[in-house]
């Protein structure tokens, strides 16, 4: 499978390429400003994960599958890369680091832990699938149709980034049917033997007002990622890079 990517920068003698992985219902486009900034000093690629953005659709959507696809990308790039993943993308990155550590030079995990969650996006997917796209004539009508089920304007704006089309009609870029069917896989985290660990440099980035990384997760993070450091971004929720971009860039810049 060839994953779509947006790219900046060029190969640097002293730095491996950096791959950036978005979260559920996100896309590489969400990371455009970060790609541009980090691309000043190295090759950076933000990927559309399977069933998202402009990447191919597939009936499979779990973390071992995503990790295998990422491994293929890294092998094509030369065999080693730094990885930064947000939310679902962070779980895919952690799965890759734990299963194929030789491919991962360092790891940044943004607002997620290696555990199962109950933060389901199923209501968002249901609302998106419920919009009669064949009957609307503007993006405003689509957003208005979402408003009843999704009152948060910021969340609606995020979801609307997945809408494609115009005068010829509209469509959602993600494979909503498969994402909804595999929500349990996306909320979960794969099982690894207790002695599994990624020994490379690792940074966990949490949003101050987010509840995705909690004190109860410290032990499992230390177990799987014994060299992990952590930083909290003030004033940021789950979409850390969008909520406080300057603090986020400062935190990851010094690590990468």
Automatic annotation (TrEMBL):
InterPro entries: AB_hydrolase_1, AB_hydrolase_fold. The keyword Hydrolase applies. Keywords: Acyltransferase, Hydrolase, Transferase. One of its GO terms (molecular function) is carboxylic ester hydrolase activity. Residues 18-248 form the AB hydrolase-1 domain. The keyword Transcription regulation does not apply. It comes from the Bacteria. PANTHER family: PROTEIN ABHD11 (PTHR46118:SF4). This is Dihydrolipoamide acyltransferase component of branched-chain alpha-keto acid dehydrogenase complex. It comes from Paramagnetospirillum magnetotacticum MS-1.
């Amino acid at each position: 499978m060839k994953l779509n990517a947006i790219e900046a920068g060029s190969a640097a003698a002293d730095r491996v390429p950096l791959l950036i992985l978005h979260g559920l219902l996100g896309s590489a486009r969400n990371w455009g400003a970060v790609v541009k900034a980090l691309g000043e000093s190295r090759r950076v690629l933000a990927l559309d994960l399977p069933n998202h953005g402009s990447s191919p659709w597939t009936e499979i959507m779990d973390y071992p599958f995503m990790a295998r696809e990422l491994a293929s990308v890294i092998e094509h790039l030369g065999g080693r890369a730094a990885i930064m993943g947000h939310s679902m993308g962070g779980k895919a990155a952690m799965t890759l680091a734990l299963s194929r550590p030789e491919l991962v030079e360092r790891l940044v995990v943004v607002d997620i832990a290696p555990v199962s969650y109950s933060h389901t996006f199923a209501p968002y997917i249901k609302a998106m699938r419920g919009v009669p796209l064949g009957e609307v004539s503007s993006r405003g009508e689509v957003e208005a149709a979402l408003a009843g089920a999704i009152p948060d304007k910021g969340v609606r704006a995020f979801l609307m980034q997945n809408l494609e089309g115009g005068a010829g009609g509209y469509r959602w870029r993600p494979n909503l049917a498969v994402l909804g069917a595999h929500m349990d896989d996306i909320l979960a985290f794969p099982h690894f033997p207790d002695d599994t660990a990624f020994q490379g440099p690792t940074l966990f980035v949490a949003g101050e007002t987010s509840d995705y990384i909690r004190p109860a997760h410290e032990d499992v993070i230390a177990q799987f990622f014994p060299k992990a450091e952590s930083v909290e971004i003030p004033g940021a929720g789950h979409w850390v890079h969008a909520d406080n971009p300057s603090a986020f860039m400062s935190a990851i810049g010094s690590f990468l």
